[in-house]
């Protein structure tokens, strides 16, 4: 039977904290170059770890004549310095070689941001662009079923799989639609969205894996 394997992006195919670090480096380089300031990156990371408003704090601390919105625009539009880990690259390579498997991405986020991430990660080598469902471009975000239904309408009589990490919103719709759902557990690398594992006990038909290589047991 044909299989359709759809991945979430952030904290599933790569660690979103790596994107944050990349964006902070871009912003700190800009500030240091433009305003002759120093140790910006370290300050921003300390603000993030303390749960403070990083952009507002860096503007205040260094008395910068720029707005929070301007820094946010750099954050969202920069070309990130991120990469796939070896396990993820191996899994995508192997799955993309299977003639009966179609790969896709279903992710929430802004179009420019998520497209830049996908290209920087090299995921476009394995998943063609018409199978990228990005919420801002698509018009619906999770937990809406519309993104999942897009793939069901595109691929008839297939077995569907969704791999994600967000227990609050990733699996509601695909479970209702009868998909096989697999949650990638946080490996301790500080996922942006923390997992409340107690939720798992209340979700039926949800499998968990500690690394993406374990997906082959279910596919």
UniProtKB/TrEMBL annotation:
InterPro entries assigned: HAD-like_hydrolase, HAD-like_sf, HAD-SF_hydro_IA, HAD_2, HAD_sf
Necessary cofactors: Mg(2+)
Gene source species: Jilunia laotingensis
Keywords: Hydrolase, Magnesium, Metal-binding
UniProt keyword Nucleotide-binding, yes or no: no
PANTHER family named among the record's database cross-references: GLYCERALDEHYDE 3-PHOSPHATE PHOSPHATASE (PTHR46470:SF2), N-ACYLNEURAMINATE-9-PHOSPHATASE (PTHR46470)
Pfam family, one: HAD_2
Source organism, top-level taxon: Bacteria
GO BP annotations, alphabetical order: small molecule metabolic process
GO-annotated molecular function: metal ion binding; phosphatase activity
Keyword Kinase annotated: no
Protein name as catalogued: HAD family hydrolase
């Amino acid at each position: 039977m044909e299989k359709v394997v759809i991945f979430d992006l952030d904290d599933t195919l790569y660690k979103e904290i790596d994107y944050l670090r990349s964006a902070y480096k871009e912003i700190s380089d800009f500030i240091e170059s433009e305003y002759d300031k120093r140790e910006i990156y370290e300050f921003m990371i300390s603000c993030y770890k303390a749960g403070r408003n990083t952009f507002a704090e860096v503007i205040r601390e260094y008395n910068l004549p720029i707005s929070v919105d301007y820094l946010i625009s750099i954050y969202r539009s920069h070309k990130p310095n991120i990469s796939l880990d070896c396990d993820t690259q191996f899994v995508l390579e192997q799955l993309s070689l299977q003639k009966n498997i179609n790969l896709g991405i279903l992710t929430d986020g802004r179009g420019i941001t998520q497209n830049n991430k996908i290209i920087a990660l090299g995921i476009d080598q394995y998943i063609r662009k018409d199978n990228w469902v990005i919420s801002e471009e698509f018009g619906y975000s999770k937990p809406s079923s519309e993104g999942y239904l897009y793939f069901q309408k595109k691929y008839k009589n297939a077995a569907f799989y969704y791999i994600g990490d967000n227990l609050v919103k990733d699996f509601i719709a695909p479970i209702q639609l009868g998909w096989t759902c697999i949650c990638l557990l946080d490996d301790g690398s500080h996922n942006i969205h923390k997992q409340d594992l107690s939720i798992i006990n209340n979700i039926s038909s949800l499998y968990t894996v500690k690394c993406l290589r374990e997906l082959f047991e279910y596919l």
